[in-house]
Structures are given as structure tokens and as C-alpha cells.
Design brief:
There is one protein chain. The longest helix has 22 residues. The chain starts with about 25 loop residues before the first helix and ends with a helix. By secondary structure, it is an alpha/beta fold. About 40% of the residues lie in helices and about 15% in strands. Helix 2 packs across helix 7.
């Protein structure tokens, strides 16, 4: 109680000068499109950005993608962009899951990305299916700054950043069917609906 008058809160945020579409050179988008071998045919890009570690929800995203494969007719690709930080065993586990579900043509692990604003600009949907609480949820805030609708787990700080149904959707953690339903919801909205939400 005595220190209350001396304590201030400094809220974390996003550099909106960097995370903006304004003035983004097409060459930045073309460079990532080429590096990630993205189809240029209107295929929806679902981006899961974050370091490659189990609690970021990659396993759940793969399970959701397996459900989507049979239920969603429009073309989509899922991109895992993040540094493995030496977790080769985890990458191999994910590769096996992707193969087991027959998703080699749907999910790509692209490694570290030096240009996250361009990555967000290429995404139609950003997912953050963390299985444990995020202290802040920077991905959610950055996606919002870039005008991309985001789906996040209802744990930790990211659940406080998303306005459900307005700027994105919130799903229970470790729930692939709910994640698949949320992605399907945003895909069905089409580019205009997603842009409005973003």
C-alpha cells in the first residue's frame, strides 16, 4: 500500500510505424512469396508465427488442419514461421504429424522470418493457438496492427487483446475442433469479411 503511489504501469505495445501496410514495397511481399513457395492463385494463407516450441500450439494446428482438409473446399495453406532454437526433435515430430495426416501439400514450416510485417501482410488469417498463457500475446497485437483477423486461445494476455467477433475469434486452448471451426468461419467470410474484421 505504501508504494502504490510510486508504481506505474508501462503497457506493452506494437510499433505501428513498422507494423503497417502503408508504404510496404511489393518486393518485400514477392520475396517472401517466393521463399515460402506460396501459390499465387487466391489460396488463403493461414499463418502461425512464433518460435517452434510445443506450447505455441503447432500440434493443435495440425490436428485442426486435418479436420479442415475434409470439410473446407476452398484452397488454403498453413505456414509455421518461427525459429526452432535447436529443437530438432520437435520439428521432426511435427513433420511426422504432417505426413501422417497427409498434409504435406497444406502445411509448411518455413523457419525464421526476418520480415514479420510482410509475413502478416501475406496472411489472410493469423492463428495463435497457444496451450499455455501468453504474458502479452505480441502476435495478436501485431496481426491487429496489420489489419489481419486473428484466432487466439482463451488463455493469458492474448485473450484480452482480441475483441471476439470484432477483431478476431477466441477459442479454448488445446481444442483442434474449435480451432478448425474458427478458421472455417473466417474463410467463409471471404476477403471482404476478413478485411472488415481485421
Amino acid at each position: 500500500p505504501e508504494a502504490a503511489g510510486r508504481v506505474i504501469t508501462i503497457h506493452r505495445g506494437v510499433d505501428i510505424g513498422r507494423f503497417t501496410r502503408e508504404g510496404m514495397l511489393p518486393t518485400r511481399l514477392a520475396s517472401l512469396t517466393s521463399a515460402w513457395r506460396l501459390p499465387g492463385d487466391g489460396t488463403a494463407i493461414i499463418l502461425l508465427p512464433g518460435r517452434m516450441t510445443g506450447w505455441k500450439g503447432h500440434r493443435e494446428a495440425i490436428a485442426a488442419a486435418a479436420l479442415m482438409k475434409t470439410r473446407i473446399s476452398q484452397p488454403w495453406r498453413m505456414i509455421f514461421a518461427g525459429d526452432a532454437q535447436g529443437r530438432s526433435g520437435y520439428l521432426e515430430e511435427l513433420s511426422q504429424l504432417i505426413r501422417q495426416h497427409g498434409l504435406d501439400d497444406r502445411i509448411a514450416m518455413v523457419g525464421h522470418c526476418d520480415d514479420m510485417p510482410a509475413a502478416f501482410a501475406l496472411a489472410d488469417i493469423v492463428i495463435a493457438p497457444s496451450t499455455e498463457p501468453e504474458a502479452f500475446g505480441r502476435v495478436v497485437a501485431e496481426a491487429g496492427a496489420m489489419g489481419v483477423p486473428v484466432i487466439g486461445s482463451d488463455v493469458g494476455g492474448q485473450a484480452e487483446i482480441i475483441a471476439p467477433g470484432e477483431t478476431g475469434l477466441v477459442v479454448p486452448p488445446m481444442n483442434p475442433p474449435a480451432l478448425a471451426d474458427a478458421i472455417a468461419n473466417l474463410l467463409e467470410r471471404g476477403p471482404e469479411g476478413r478485411a472488415a474484421m481485421g
